Amino acid sequence: MKEAQDCKKKINRKRKIFSPYRWAMTVFFLAIAISTILSLASQAMLDDADLVVALVILSLFIGIGIIFDIIGVSVTAADAKPFHSMAAHKEKGAREALMLLRNASNVSSICNDVVGDICGIVSGTTAAVIVVQLQHLLSSRNVMISVLFTALISGLTIGGKALGKTFAINQSTKVVYWAGRFLHIFHRS
After folding, report:
1. Comparing C-alpha atoms, which of 76, 100, 114 is closest to residue 178?
2. Closest by alpha carbon to 104, among 83, 126, 78?
């Protein structure tokens, strides 16, 4: 009996030791996969796209980054108590919301770092395509077009995330609830 407990303790110690490295590797490969998918999607949509379509795609990536940032902050700020009550009443999405809250640091890392950073990178690539289109449209190679457009995108992204963080902290329960409801669609049993 004592040998089994000692063995279990050793296994748990090993899990604790290797857990951060395993998480880092998981996030690394997840980032590669998501980045590949979003980059391919962006390139496919931008091929032969006119300026308006490119601007819509850019707005989409900025919006996705802001939404995931809101979810990541909300998960770290929300209280689990209301979700325990909802789960007891079998409300849709409550169990999924509790799962998000139990894994808040991982969820925040994926939402804020992985998805948020990838959307920033892909929106930068999209911005480069738009700048080239604008320069072609205006028959100008003026570097100011690139500088101003980059500044505008940075401002929209950072300002949007700043507003989103305030919203996420003030409305964390609602955000986590709706994220749980969305995940419930995929976890129906």
Report:
1. 100
2. 78
CB 119 within 8 A of CB 101: no
What digits encode the pLDDT tens for the residues 48-102? Answer: 888 888 899 999 999 999 999 999 999 999 999 999 999 999 999 999 999 999 9
Residue recorded with tokens 């951060």: 20
Q: Can you say whether the dihedral through the CA atoms of 137, 141, 143, 146 is positive or negative?
A: positive
pLDDT tens for each residue of 136-181: 888 777 788 888 888 999 999 999 999 999 999 999 999 999 999 9
Q: Which two tokens stand for residue 38?
A: 């979003």
The neighbour count for residue 116, using CB atoms within 10 Å, is: 21
C-alpha pair distances (Å), 188 with each of 85, 93, 120, 180, 182: 19, 10, 33, 12, 11
CA distances from 96 to 32, 51, 63, 188 (A): 26, 40, 23, 10
Task: Give yes or no for a contact between 166 and 66, defined as CB atoms under 8 angstroms apart.
Answer: no
Query: Contact, 68 vs 111, CB < 8 A?
Result: yes
By CB atoms closer than 10 A (0-12, 13-18, 19+), residue 147 is exposed
Q: What is the spatial distance between Cα 174 and Cα 168, in angstroms, rounded to a whole number?
A: 9
